[in-house]
Write a structure and sequence with these properties.
Number of strands: 9
Distance between the termini: 46 Å
Largest sheet: 8 strands, antiparallel, barrel
Helix content: 10-25%
Strand content: over 45%
Shape: globular
Radius of gyration: 23 Å
Structural class: mainly beta
Length: about 180
């Protein structure tokens, strides 16, 4: 009987140890928040522009929203809103598609690739709908590399400045992520 009680006690302790080991990775999880400014430079010609239209639907030019147009980007990410005086911390590389027929909504698929600072060499992947006419837009963070391996979370985009004549824009991205 004593051996059975002892065996049960050891089995119970082993089960608790396994549960604790399974829960320990969550304890190592980090939460990071940062803000960057995304600069979409449409004007300026081939050596200055950071966005290029690579495809369009037959109806894109007739649509008020540019529905069906596809753009590739390599936009600067800076610490502050002024492109010429703020420190460059990375590049937003990816695509966006004009996906709204009746309203200006973009499908964003981009990586924030960091080239300077604490996150140099790391990246964060953002994929989701960007209803550009809203004051605040929320998009999911679906992954990351380097310091942001296994990242998940969200970012909030707010248009800081937009030039309707040229299409140039500066957008503030507040990023909230959990990662290893």
């Amino acid at each position: 009987m004593a051996a059975t009680a002892s065996t049960c006690a050891v089995s119970g302790l082993l089960a608790l140890a396994l549960l604790a080991a399974a829960a320990s990775p969550a304890a190592a999880e980090k939460e990071t928040r940062f803000r960057v400014y995304w600069h979409d430079v449409v004007s300026g010609g081939p050596n200055v522009s950071t966005v290029a239209q690579v495809a369009e639907a037959p109806s894109s030019n007739a649509s008020a929203t540019g529905f069906g147009a596809v753009y590739v980007i390599d936009d600067p990410l800076t610490e502050g809103p002024n492109l010429s005086s703020s420190r460059l911390v990375g590049r937003a590389q990816g695509v966006y598609v004009s996906a709204g027929k009746d309203s200006l909504s973009l499908l964003m698929a981009m990586n924030f690739v960091f080239v300077d600072g604490a996150y140099n060499g790391s990246s964060v992947a953002v994929v989701g709908a960007n209803p550009a006419e809203r004051k605040v837009r929320e998009m999911p963070v679906v992954g990351g590399t380097g310091a942001f391996r296994f990242a998940r979370g969200y970012c909030q985009a707010r248009t800081h400045w937009f030039d309707a004549k040229t299409g140039d824009a500066t957008v503030e991205y507040s990023v909230h992520i959990r990662h290893d």
